[in-house]
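Show me any protein, fold above all:
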Amino acid sequence: MSKLTFIDGNDVRLLRSGKEFFPELLGAIHAAQQEIYLETYIFTADPTANQVRDALKAAARRGVTVRVVIDWLGSGRAAAETLVADLCAAGVAARCFNPWFRRGLARTHRKILVADRAVALVGGLNIIDDLVSDDGWDLPLPYPRWDFAVSLRGPLVRVVFHEVDAQWRRTGKLNLRARFALMRDLHHEAKVARTRLSPAALLVRDNLRNRSTIQKAYLQALGQAKRRAILVTPYFAPGRKFRRALTAAASRGVQVTLVVGVGQFALQDAVAQSYYPGLLRQGVRIIEYHKTQLHAKVAIVDDDWATVGSSNFDALSLFLNHEANIVIQDAEFTAELETELNQGIADGSEVQEADFSSLPWTRKLWNGFAFLVYRNLMRIMTSGHYG
């Protein structure tokens, strides 16, 4: 259904929250014999994260080349710098991404591991225990954070490897000529890799080659949807194009269900809820998820299109930060993910149009104020790309 071209012959497995993700991550690190690349937004110091840290150190001690990129802001300035120093002292090559915003406002929000160019993990999970909140307060969660990743084996891993290797080199000292050469090589690699139709593709978003790649994939999938679409995000604040794609699909009879995380940030909740009346009037079904912290960034469209990754449906993910999603065209995988999403819908509460038509004026004013503040701030941060 999509015009994207895909790489053939991949084994793609769904990983549900930390219970399945961390054993897979640690297994890949322990089994690596040549090289490991890890890129993450948050890398904490809880017992789960410390297992990952110690496994990376052990890999370096046995002669594996280990390269780690940690976002300077996402992990906290002092904590990130301390962790990088600790890893480097143990023989791991580690760097902070964009310290002190020296290269603009963008953060790396990607969560990727590649081991021996044979296995890759891509998704939404940071290196943090999924029973602890990831907002800096370290609050206990009632249930494991709801999140997903995929494990990849096959030729798509080659493309993922080139992306993390490029990010590693970009965080070092590259002159302008070397940066242009790197861009050329990545473009060539994508053209070489995408030669046959198949079930999986890597989508990345950055501020050079791929400014709108992930959003365009969503717009295309929604534009071609025939029966249903389920989209899950912790933060909902997309631009007009994305919102219009949702309502246009609903208006032509597609059952569009939007599952949104709430309860973490009051301002974010108000911004998301400012969109509800317009979406509900156009037939979009909205579910608010309260059971635990929702961190999943996933979607399915019809019976053979699914995506799992790091990109939220907000301005930071769609227009500013570095992101990575895997798109899978496979009926079996889509059905497996649908089962998980239907359980999330059952665990949430459906928003009715009447709920918002009867809101007190103070609440409507707060939602409208939050929207204006967010929109203007994001327009500044994204150089006018958000609208």
Remarks:
- Confidence is low (pLDDT under 50) at residues 190-198.
